Amino acid sequence: MSPSTTPDRIDEYLDAARACILDVGIRRTTLTDVARRAGVARMTLYRRWPDMQTLMGDLMTREWVQLATTAGATPARFGPQEIAESVVRTISAIRENALFQKIVSVDPEFLLPYLLVRRGRTHDAIVQAIAAAVELGQRDGLVRAGDARVFAVGIIVAAQSLVVSAQIMSDLADQDTLNGELVTMIQRYLA
Asked: What is the CATH number that goes with domain 57-190?
């Protein structure tokens, strides 16, 4: 592993990309801008990422998985209530995240492929985490029998809509109310 591709260096580059995007958005950020912010030659970044799209994929994966890991902290038990609350904490953290808010406000079209065309690595990581929690709940007799991965996918589809669409309904129901409704939906779905 070359010094420019060690995990610490990669995090520095992703941090630089994040800072650039928070300043001007995705469309106006180039790999040259990121390299300048990171204090490295542009070619250093091109060795790792051929374009901003690829770098953004890595940045979003790091950002959202880190939020999911922190916000969705492992509960003492894995019943429907605990799983539901963990999911809601995670989506709230993503929705309140500065990078997510910047993307939604300045470059919302960047999210469209992840909503309409394909899932990203973050989807896979979160599905895996929810499925593991569901399996533990099933093992303890707290969650109904069934395919834990399918349950996780159902939860992600419902939760994702709350992340990206709740704001357009804010005149009808506030975030806390909608979060409570999602907890109820997930609880009943898993019971």
From this structure: 1.10.357
